[in-house]
Amino acid sequence: MLGLTAMTPRSKLALWLLMVAGLLVNCFPLPMLPAVDFLFGSIAAMIVLHGYGLGWGALCALVASSYTLVLWHHPYAVVIFVAEVLFVGLLLRPNRSIVLLDGLFWVVLGMPLVWLLYHHVLDVEADETRLVMLKDAVNGIFNALLPACSFCTRRCAP
Fold first, then answer.
1. d(Cα 62, Cα 116) in Å, to the nearest integer?
2. pLDDT(3) > 80
3. What own/partner pairs with CB < 8 Å and gap ≥ 24 does 108-116 have?
4. pLDDT digits 0-9 by tens, 23-61
5. What is the mean pLDDT of residues 136-147?
């Protein structure tokens, strides 16, 4: 993780802008169904994870997902979205796909966490919980795909 003192002023500005952008983007969700919204703030968290490291990526995920407290009135989405960045960040290596790692997170940890927290803690009906599980997984993988395309384009460009 890069410390603030080791960053250039431009890097610090980019980091803070990405954190603010992650939060602001989540303030304008894309509604799919009642109480089912696509959020795009984790795009910023994945960019920060890739460029600044695990600690800053997790902090960005925390900041960006904090709006879900207002949107959905519970803290469990914050827990899941921060866990997503931590999981991907812990397994991320130079030749590993951020998209595949994110998909692995949703299969191994994310969807079971949604089931546990939504169905058993929040007492959401099973069908609604399955819908949230699927939506969160698709949303998370999509949000990892966009920065991954950007990283590949920069890396593959002449």
1. 20
2. no
3. 109/83, 110/80, 110/83, 110/84, 110/136, 110/137, 110/140, 111/136, 111/137, 113/79, 113/80, 113/83, 114/80
4. 999 999 999 888 789 999 999 999 999 999 999 999 999
5. 95
Q: In the CATH hierarchy, which fold is given to the domain comprising 4-156? A: Arp2/3 complex 21 kDa subunit ARPC3 (1.10.1760)
Dump pLDDT digits (tens) for 56-88. Answer: 999 999 999 999 999 999 999 999 999 999 999
DSSP letter string, the chain: ---GGGS-HHHHHHHHHHHHHHHHHHTS-EEEETTEEE--HHHHHHHHHHHH-HHHHHHHHHHHHTTHHHHHSSSHHHHHHHHHHHHHHHH--TTS-HHHHHHHHIIIIIHHHHIIIIIIIS---HHHHHHHHHHHHHHHHHHHHHHHHHHHHHHH--
Q: Where are the domains of the chain?
A: 4-156
